[in-house]
Amino acid sequence: MPNGQKSTMTTTVDKVLYTGQAHTTGGRNGTSRSSDGRLDIKLSSPGAPGNGTNPEQMFAAGWSACLRDWAVWVRFQAHRLRFTRRAETR
Fold this sequence. Notes:
By secondary structure, the protein is an alpha+beta fold. 39% of the residues lie in helices and 12% in strands. A three-stranded antiparallel β-sheet has the order 1-2-3, with no helix packed on it.
């Protein structure tokens, strides 16, 4: 930006579809539980002994699930758009 001005970008959320909540005690070597009780796990640091998972694994699992669904949605939208355009050009 000219003259040292800062650029600001604002995003507006029209509709919140879902909000997840969880409570963690004991940090990386503790436990986490979601507000609805569907997630209730032991945590452990990466490489540490024990049977808990580490937060990085949880993040990776959640991120990959969302990314996969996004990719399916994009493919569906592209497919739908392609057939819509085909129908309009005939």
